[in-house]
Amino acid sequence: MKGKDKDGKPTYPYDKSSRTVPMALMLLVLCGFSFYLGGIFCSDKDRNQTIETSKVETSPKSTGGSSLQVKAISFPECGIELQDYTPCTDPKRWKKFSTHRLSFLERHCPPLYERKECLIPPPNGYKAPIKWPESRGKCWYRNVPYDWINKQKSNQHWLLKEGDKFLFPGGGTMFPNGVGPYVDLMEDLIPQMKDGTIRTAIDTGCGVASWGGDLLDRGILTVSLAPRDNHEAQVQFALERGIPAILGIISTQRLPFPSNSFDMAHCSRCLIPWTEFGGIYLLEVNRILRPGGFWVLSGPPINYENRWRGWNTTIEDQKADFDKLQELLTSMCFKLFNKKDDIAVWQKLSSNECYNKLDNPDSYPPKCDDGTEPDSAWYTPIRSCVVAPEPKLKNLKLSALPKWPQRLNTAPERVGQIQGGSDGAFKHDNSKWKVRIKHYKKLLPALGTDKIRNVMDMNTMYGGFAAALVGAPLWVMNVVSSYAPNTLPVVYDRGLIGTYHDWCEAFSTYPRTYDLLHVDGLFSSESHRCEMKYVLLEMDRILRPGGYAIIREASYYVDGVATLTKGMRWSCHKEDTEYGLEKEKILICQKKLWYAKESSR
């Protein structure tokens, strides 16, 4: 039955529709109030997380395959005090971090608001580096103008300043009379160093990398590792000499390398306290060393019977240290392989028998069973447990791998663990890079000559770029993104070297340490995470003046990259790929030599 309200309009008996308008109004009010509260509580967080993107604009036709539009920008010079700036291992920030196990020397990258948006200048008087192989024995003093090692290590012949050059006599703490005889003795103790069985090595606490430099002539490729510490610029000296090296330290985080990868590890009085903290540093060596691989130690407590007087200790203490070291290594499935004079060699066991014993709850260290991937090595804490080799991988051990150089082009067993990986995919990648390198040499005639020594492949798959250049007088640091498929084990299995890295951060090296940077689709794959401007500024930091970049990218990104490189004082020209496809182009760039305004040549 109808009724009328006070204005004479009809009304209806009570039903669901009579509440429709009030309920809608109530929901509208509640939503508005929630939005207001959200704005109050989230405004500060959003402000801190905002990343500047105003200089990058997408054209209206970008969805149709045109190019990324980037506004031109001219990057200013950094101050001369930043000539050796290493953003993630900056000594000025050390006091902010813990001294526990020297963890302040690990990677600690600056927050976004502290990032430098300027060009790192070379030192006053910088010159083009001396070419390989002469560079192994000398470098320009003004390129690495530091005297600390020269003054403190002169009796050990690490290096010697003579006129406008540093000379490298090949000495070290345990081989002051030259690295050659030291390695000769090592080869006598480890015959596998002579026949191509051992191909990859890591030198922890490398000094100026004389050990790694000597091994190059013996067919062994070494990653020389050292932190940025009071041994000023040791990694910078190594790279200036043309020897592979990277900033790093065994501390609280895993090293950025996959498990079961190096054929040999070496420590020559590297001052790492191997038996402290439950042997956790040895556990990390165990993780990265291949089954059947060798760990070589010289210095305390080796040869303590004859050396203890010079170590400011007692023979009893040194014997106790050696016994403790031997006990720890045995518990981690190592056996003493050989020992003579100042060198002792242990071998990591290959059989599962020892590793199965670690399942005993009373064993120490135990076998890792916490679910952490053995290859997880980017800001991953070192575990106090043994990473046992996978029993199903029958060809992981050193003795099962083909000898070098056959190993280079043999599809590794671990390629099958990668999504889409197979022997066929590996062989196709090999063939593809042979064609590409032939084309690159036409575009950049310096490639394959003594003008290019230190090379980085910034986002490799299987190391095909490096493999196709293996006969050239250069070496390649193969980089696999920490966000990409885990292909780095394959790189090591074929006898090449590399590291994990996230290109949203600075690389673990000094400025001006690479002659050539190679990019293959990096911006296409990482632009959703890493701002292009910062990646290019990092490339400028680590590239030597006069050095080159080969940037292979989707056509959409190429013009934007070229625009930014102009602001970095690079000269670039765009080229077709080997097949002339429009969807992909190549930029060939060269970094110009310039000096800070307050400096003179």
Automatic annotation (TrEMBL):
TM ranges: 21-41
Principal cellular location given in the protein's record: membrane
Nucleotide-binding among keywords: no
An example Gene Ontology CC term for this record: membrane
PANTHER family: METHYLTRANSFERASE PMT21-RELATED, SAM-DEPENDENT METHYLTRANSFERASE
Family the entry assigns: Belongs to the methyltransferase superfamily.
Protein name: Methyltransferase
